[in-house]
């Protein structure tokens, strides 16, 4: 397998996983809102750190994708 072919497959995998993380983070955020306003429970204390972790990971993956796309364009 050529390195450019490998790189483009890796980029597409990271894009898919980034979208999955963003969707998961949005579901967790909505769950924390429901926990706060509907049930008045403290479950949001567990959900909000997971939301932040998911968003930070998605940001890191986006930066890696951007870096790999620049490397791929230089080749």
Features:
75 residues; mainly alpha; 2 helices; 88% helix
Describe the structure.
The structure is a single chain. This protein has 75 residues and is an all-alpha fold. The chain has one domain (14-74). The chain is 88% helix and 0% strand. The protein is built from two helices and no strands. It has helices spanning 3-37, 44-74. Helix 1 (3-37) packs antiparallel against helix 2 (44-74). The radius of gyration is 17 Å and the shape is rod-shaped. The model has no long low-confidence stretch (mean pLDDT 92).
Which SSEs are present, and which pair or pack?
Elements: H1 3-37, H2 44-74
Summarize the structure.
The protein is mostly helical and 75 residues long.
Could you say which overall geometry the principal axes of the C-alpha atoms support?
rod-shaped
Strand composition percent: under 5%
- Total number of beta strands: 0
Whole-number count of domains = 1
Q: Could you list the spans in which at least 5 consecutive residues all have pLDDT below 50?
A: none
Q: Helicity level, as a percent range?
A: over 70%
End-to-end Cα distance, whole Å, is 16 Å
The mean pLDDT is: 92
Rg calculated over all Cα atoms = 17 Å
- Helix and strand string, N-terminal first? HH
Structural class: mainly alpha
User: In DSSP terms, counting alpha (H) and pi (I) runs of 4 or more, how many helices?
Assistant: 2
Largest sheet: none
């Amino acid at each position: 397998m050529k390195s450019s072919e490998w790189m483009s497959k890796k980029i597409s995998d990271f894009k898919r996983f980034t979208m999955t993380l963003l969707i998961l983070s949005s579901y967790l955020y909505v769950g924390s809102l429901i926990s706060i306003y509907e049930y008045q429970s403290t479950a949001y204390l567990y959900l909000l750190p997971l939301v932040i972790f998911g968003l930070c990971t998605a940001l890191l993956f986006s930066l890696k994708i951007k870096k790999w796309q620049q490397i791929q364009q230089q080749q």
